[in-house]
Amino acid sequence: MNAQTILFLNQKGGVGKTTSAVNLGAALAQQGKKVLLVDLDAQSNLTSATSIDGRRPGMYEVIAGKLSAEEAIQQTPVKNLYAIPSNINMAGLNIELVEEEEREFFIKRALVPLEESWEYILADCPPSLGLVTVNAMAWAKRVIIPMQCEYLAMEGLNLLMRTVGNMKKAINPDLEVLGILFTMYSKRTNLAKEVVEDVSSFFPQLVFKTMIPRNIRLAEAPSHGLPITVYDGSSSGAKAYKVLAKEVTKRVARNQ
Ligand code: ADP
Ligand code: MG
């Protein structure tokens, strides 16, 4: 095995990064893939959404060299789905790492040893382009950009595309955008349609056909510590993430 390594990346908060990491991860796991989720955000929403124990050592402690990434892995309630937690200490890392040599490569050094044991490693990034996110981009090969259909969406997207391009040139030649994922989509609004058309015309190869609808069950699931496919498998949100898992599997195979 040589893991597909995928980041959920967008410098904006509240666009569906964590929701997509958790629920795509669970859908892939339920389709028989061996999936590891990595929480890189100090807010640790992924940690609570998957019912793993955020008081046990997580990515911060791994990066600080207190334990190996392997030792930080916990089992989630979903078969084949495992996760490494985060905690509030991650918030200090952007500053702490500045002093270090090779400061871009802490996450890479920590996670590369896991790659041969997993089919997918999905990492949930914080809502910033700080050093933690730079570290994530120095490690992973693929990026999924979740985005909401809102006014000025293209501006944030262009900045993000430039950032990924710069990282590819300077630090990680393997880095590619796997796709742009529309979340909280509502086909009844004209703005949503316009944003999708706009983004699709600039990045025709990148927009995922699957769009995640706005679905209240997706917003409820994290408070039960469960992915949507377990919390309410028949909801529109669960169906969308299952279809997305198939699309991602195909796209990943094509891009190899
Ligand atoms: P991010 O990780 O980018 O900050 P989240 O995944 O935490 O974004 O999503 C932000 C909020 O929107 C959360 O409360 C989440 O439950 C909710 N949410 C995410 N996707 C959907 C959706 N498709 N429908 C309804 N609510 C959603
Ligand atoms: Mg988040």
Automatic annotation (TrEMBL):
Lineage top rank: taxon: Bacteria
UniProt protein name: ParA family protein
UniProt organism field: Sphaerochaeta halotolerans
Membrane-spanning ranges: none
Phylogenetic lineage: Bacteria, Pseudomonadati, Spirochaetota, Spirochaetia, Spirochaetales
Ranges for domain AAA: 4-177
InterPro entries: AAA_dom (IPR025669), DNA_Partitioning_ATPase (IPR050678), P-loop_NTPase (IPR027417)
Pfam families linked: AAA_31
